[in-house]
Amino acid sequence: MTSQEPTGARNFNVDLRGIVDLLSRHLYSSPRVYVRELLQNAVDAMTARGAGTDAPIRFETGNGELRVADAGVGLTEPQVHELLATIGNSSKRDELGLARHDFLGQFGIGLLSCFLVADEIEVVTRSAAVPDAPAVVWRGHADGHYTVEPGRRDEPGTTVVLRARRDFGHWLEASTVRELVRHYGALLPCDVRVDGERVTEPAAPWERGRGDLVAYGTRVLGAEPFDAVPLEVPEAGLRGAAFVLPYESNPSERATHRVYLKRMLLGDRVEGVLPEWAFFVRCVVDAGELRPTASREQLYDDELLAVTRERLGDALRSWLVRLAATDPARMRDFLKVHYRGVMALAVHDAEMLRIVDEQVPFETSEGHVTLAELRARHRSIRYTPRVEEFRQLSAIAAAQGIALVNGGYVYHVEILNRLRRLDPDLDVRRLETSELATRFGPVGPGVEFAARDFLDAARRTLAGHGCAPLLRAFSPASLPVVYLEGDPGGHGADEDADGVWADFIATGEPERAGPRLVFNHRNPVVARLTSTADVRVVELSVEALYGYALLTGNRPLRPDDVAGVNRAFLGLVEHAVREG
């Protein structure tokens, strides 16, 4: 590369107004990115020069101007024309023989972003690659023209001077510049100063101790994180941490994260970094190989980002599994905060469904166990869609060997119905009245015959409630009655007399779908009641047991039901007093 003398001041015209409009409307989300672009240009220049200098990058404010000086590689006059007159030109990299990923930005388009806040940009630069090359001054104006002329600079490097546009002076004030430089460049591995004050930190948070990492997460979240999970993806040159939220988040809102590229902040609301199911964390990461979009505010969703997302998801799943295995109490604390979100996402996301299956206890007829544990014991699982139904039937189901799950909580039914995605041969269905009733044993012709008067009285008493009586023998014996709704299951008059619905056959009553009050003959009270001759006592007792069945099943009592229970209670008290 040979030395070239500047040929004197010359004027050039380009359509900068259209370019500025394009940048402000379609590329950048805010004028504040001009600070990031200036930082990127300065860091790129220092990178290109290599070990030639360790001088700081300096931002200096005052008099409505901002000066940014670096001791980087600098430019010759031909490079000034090539890089500052051509948007996005990459020849700087090519001429210096450096790979594209060694640089953070693109000098031409990055510098033009300064027109978002300035009417005039001045660049004074001197090349370090061509020792005898003179300094050059480039001045660009928002009206569309620029000049190139000889300049003066004692050392190689570049100084950019911005002069604020009307009503944009606040963007160049010291406090704003200091805040933005710290925001974008705090983790840069070089010395960056604003009006003499260093704003870069000596090491990234994940390179320090855990206490510092948690403290950093507290600043990011505004509250101390539930936990900090280290992240590393060598393929993407990525390191960082995921901070588990200490408060409930909305899984329907797309999570955003703070992402750095080569220690320069890409953005603090970057999407697509983690799988959708990982809504309960916010991460801060630095990557060297991920590609930014044209605005350098989001990541390009390519194959490498997809791999990165998968690896980060693996790390978070491992954290969940490890937490459940080593610290169940803390896992319960996590679920107390994020339970609704975890369950909601499991309805749609296969990975979260697997985590719920393996880690979240459900209320079942065998106690609080995970669905994975229940599947290991049973190939058929039944559920009730209402909490009160489960509470009424769980003991009965357990006694009959039925694996019953309480599906009355939000998202439980949907998750249970999705279990076949994990276990295709699994039989999962709602528990039907007919299925449970078929497990109840018949009482035998002799008992049934002896109880005909009892059943007649029970039928008369329950008719006003739209309910019919059944006499069966089932476990547990401590339960006198159970209230069942639904179709008895299609049992017809041609079946054996000792079938489930044999009492209807024996009495000649037509079979009707609807609620049944099933009396348990194994219960001592019911067994004695079926042989009681006092019809009034039977009627009052049936009324009382009907109310008991509704109450134990947590079913709502209608006014007529309450009145019937009151009559039964007072009638039985009166009978007891009279007999006493």
Descriptive terms for the model:
single chain, 580 residues, alpha+beta, nine-stranded mixed beta sheet, five-stranded mixed beta sheet, 20 helices, 22 strands, 39% helix, 20% strand, disordered N terminus
Detailed description of the structure:
The protein is an alpha+beta fold and 580 residues long. The chain is 39% helix and 20% strand. The chain has 20 helices and 22 strands. The strands form 5 sheets. Strands 1-6-5-4-7-3-2-8-9 form a 9-stranded mixed beta sheet, with helices on one face. Strands 10-11-14-12-13 form a 5-stranded mixed beta sheet. Helix 9 (328-346) runs antiparallel to helix 10 (350-359). It is rod-shaped. Residues 1-6, 87-108 and 488-511 have low confidence and may be disordered.
Concise summary:
39% of the residues lie in helices and 20% in strands.
Please give the largest β-sheet: 9 strands, mixed
Number of strands: 22
Q: Spatial order of the strands in the main sheet?
A: 1-6-5-4-7-3-2-8-9
End-to-end Cα distance, whole Å, is 121 Å
Helical content (DSSP H or I, runs of 4+): 25-40%
Which value, in Å, is the CA radius of gyration? Answer: 39 Å
Choose one word for the global shape: rod-shaped
Fraction in beta strands: 15-25%
Helical run tally:
20
* Contiguous runs where pLDDT drops below 50 for at least 5 residues: 1-6, 87-108, 488-511
Structural class: alpha+beta
Mean pLDDT: 84
Chain-wise SSE layout:
Elements lengths: L9 E4 L2 H12 L5 H17 L7 E6 L2 E6 L6 H8 L6 H6 L10 H6 L5 E9 L9 E6 L3 E6 L6 E8 L9 H12 L6 E3 L2 E2 L11 H12 L5 E7 L4 E7 L12 E5 L2 E7 L10 E7 L15 H24 L1 H19 L3 H10 L1 E4 L2 E4 H7 L2 E5 L2 H13 L4 E3 L5 H6 L9 E4 L2 H5 L7 H6 L1 H12 L4 E5 L8 E4 L17 H6 L8 E5 L3 H6 L5 H18 L6 H21 L1
Parallel strand pairs: 2-8, 12-14, 17-18, 17-19, 20-22
Antiparallel strand pairs: 1-6, 2-3, 3-7, 4-5, 4-7, 5-6, 8-9, 10-11, 11-14, 12-13, 15-16, 21-22
